[in-house]
Amino acid sequence: MEELAVSERLAIQVQDASVIFPNGGNGITAIQDISLNIYRNEFVSLLGPSGCGKSTLIRLMSDLIQPTLGTIAIEQNNPSEARLLRKFGIVFQSPILMEWRTVRDNIELPLEISGILKKARRAISDEMLELVGLTKFHKHYPWQLSGGMQQRVAIARALALNPSILFMDEPFSSLDEFTKERLQTELLRIREKTKKTIVFVTHSISEAVYLSDRIVVLSAHPGRIHSIIDVKLDPSRPSIIRESEAFYDYMKQVRNCFHHEVGGSNDDE
Amino acid sequence: MTTSSKPTFSAGAVFGWVLGLILLWELAAWAMQNLFHVNSAKLKLPYLHDVLYTMLTNIPVLLDSGTKTFGNALTGLLLGSLIGAALAFAMNRAKSLESTIAPYLIFSQMVPIIGLAPIVFGIIHDAQYSRIIMAAYVTFFPVAINTLKGLKSIRKEHLELMFSYAPSRWQLFSKLQFTASLPDLFIGLKLAAPLAITSAIVVELMGAPDGIGVIMVTSLYYGTASAYMFWSTVFTSIGIGVLLFSIISLLERLVTPWQPEFRKKGG
After folding, report:
1. Is B198 helix (H, G, I), strand (E, B) or coil?
2. Is residue B84 over pLDDT 80?
3. Rounded Cα distance, B211 and B67, in Å
4. Which of A103, B32, B42, B169 places its Cα 20 to 30 Å from the Cα of A188?
5. What's the topology of domain B49-255?
6. Given an 8 Å threshold on Cβ–Cβ distance, is B175 in contact with A140?
7. The pairing of beta strand A197-202 with beta strand A165-169
8. Across the interface, do A109 and B165 touch by the CB < 8 Å criterion?
9. What is the pTM of this model?
10. According to the model, what pLDDT value does residue B8 have?
11. Option in B157, B164, B258 nearest A62 (CB)
């Protein structure tokens, strides 16, 4: 790892990216001049209040929108090529499972589209089911599962094609607090096992601190990078760490970023 | 957990409802004849038991004619729904196509069936094809409109998810769009089913060689005995309409079992 050149270690490189949405005569600047490097195996959170462009930024990386200015490189490809090369999987805010497919068939959807044969699909979905702890539920339909379980299916589906990068756009924000914490721990375990690079959008400070190696704090109108915070907590992140002094210090540090902003009229969480 | 928006019927309620209707009918027929002394009351509203007796004695004829009508309406319904679904997918794919076709679609539904049927019959000169065409004609519109609505209500995130997998046009269609629009396609089919039967009968009224509409129109011109027959054909028409509707409902349940009202409770 230490021998690799910087470009080799880079998973995602955003350079001077701006996105301006057309709005009648004058456009709305969603994000402005954002430059950001994300390295392999890193867990990076994009954190900020509504309107800071964190979703826009992850949508740029995942080829769902195009930059007005600037460039994005995903493992040295542009996002569109990276998508075709299946370099990344996406987990959205809602699980968006296909109601007519069982858990297993939902996980196998991207495999089917990639033309992977049934036997191989089965082996992969078995492995994914086990990874997210849903082996017993493989025959269930989405409506028979809780919200947290549905989101596990979505994670398994995003990982099925074994991409090197996982984009997660507020994946836990509609779950209750207990489920959310359990899934956060789960996610770190999955990350440990699969060694993915993860970009994670959230508006929850504690979630960002608990999960991330680095937190990219964004400020709004227009969306810009306010600061980047390295989180140097115990990498194994035992649950108890949430009550530690260091954890609170990081939360305070993040919160302070917002207090220096536009008169402190921010509603975090 | 979720309350179904569809009405549910209990067997007891249906029985009571039918019994009430029978009694009301018999009472009204009796009143017309014996209380109000309406001219040729038996022609206008015969006793229900007389009608049912006529139906029983004419089962072979009614069954034979009903089958003809039903078969043609069903063929037309299938043809019309294929055309309707194809139009919906085409319109969903190209906005320009939608704005071009939509006015014609709406215009087509302004033409009264009773006016169009003799025109079609006059041109084709084949009772069977005319019935199929008319049934297809009334079917394609509700199917097209509802399927298009279904396609348009597919969530943006679902399309984005598929986009991220870089599917072929066919994969996008078969793995998302087609299946997702099925529930709405069935709504269109259920709307179209009674129309398909009616329009097949309308063609038969114009002078087809067979079908329930033929007996209906001939029995209109003769005395009391044929009044019973006329009512028998009306009942038969209702019967095949209900049959067609039930077949579609059953098919819907089999093909789209994931719809909230069909879901089995528990695991």
Report:
1. helix
2. yes
3. 8
4. A103
5. MetI-like fold (1.10.3720)
6. no
7. parallel
8. yes
9. 0.84
10. 65
11. B164
CB A17 within 8 A of CB A31: yes
Phi-psi region of A63 (alpha: psi -120 to 50; beta: other; left: phi over 0): left
**Helical H runs in chain B?**
11-30, 41-44, 48-57, 59-93, 95-108, 113-124, 127-152, 156-164, 169-172, 178-205, 212-219, 224-255
Q: How far apart are CA A55 and CA A63, in angstroms?
A: 12
Q: pLDDT at residue A263 above 50?
A: no
Q: Note the pLDDT tens digit of each residue in A188-226.
A: 999 999 999 999 999 999 999 999 999 999 988 888 899
Query: Taking all residues of chain A, what is their mean pLDDT, rounded to a whole number?
Result: 89
Q: Quick one: tokens of B84?
A: 């309707």
* pLDDT for position A109: 96
Residue B181's closest chain A neighbor by CA?
A100
Residue found under tokens 């009512």: B231
Task: Phi first, then psi: give them for residue A216, nearest 5 degrees.
Answer: -95, 110
ipTM: 0.88
Residue B217 has pLDDT above 90, yes or no: no
Please indicate if any CB of chain B lies within 8 Å of the CB of A234. no
Question: Chain B partners of A144 at a C-beta cutoff of 8 Å?
Answer: 266-267
Residue scoring higher pLDDT (B222 or A178): A178
Q: Is residue A129 within 8 Å of A103, Cβ to Cβ?
A: yes
Please check the confidence at residue A24 and state whether its pLDDT lies above 80. Answer: no
Q: Where in chain B are the domains? A: 49-255
Say whether B175 and A113 touch across the interface (CB within 8 A): yes
Closest chain A residue to B265, measured at CA? A144
How many Cα atoms sit within 13 Å of B105 on the Cβ side? 21
Question: Which residues on chain B are in Cβ contact (under 8 Å) with A100?
Answer: 179, 256-258
A99 contacts B258? CB cut-off 8 A: yes
Interface test with B, best of A80, A98, A157 (most B CBs within 10 A): A98
What letter does residue A77 receive in the DSSP assignment?
B
Minimum-distance CB partner of B171 among A64, A90, A113: A113
Dihedral Cα A226, A232, A237, A240, nearest 10 deg: -90
- Which strand (E) or helix (H) includes residue A148? helix A147-159
Residue-range domains of chain A with CATH: 6-87+164-260 (3.40.50.300), 97-162 (no CATH)
Nearest to A92 by CA among B165, B241, B160, B118: B160
Give kind and range of the element (H or E) at residue A149.
helix A147-159
- Distance (Å, whole) CA A36 – CA B190: 55
Secondary element (H or E) of residue A60: helix A54-61
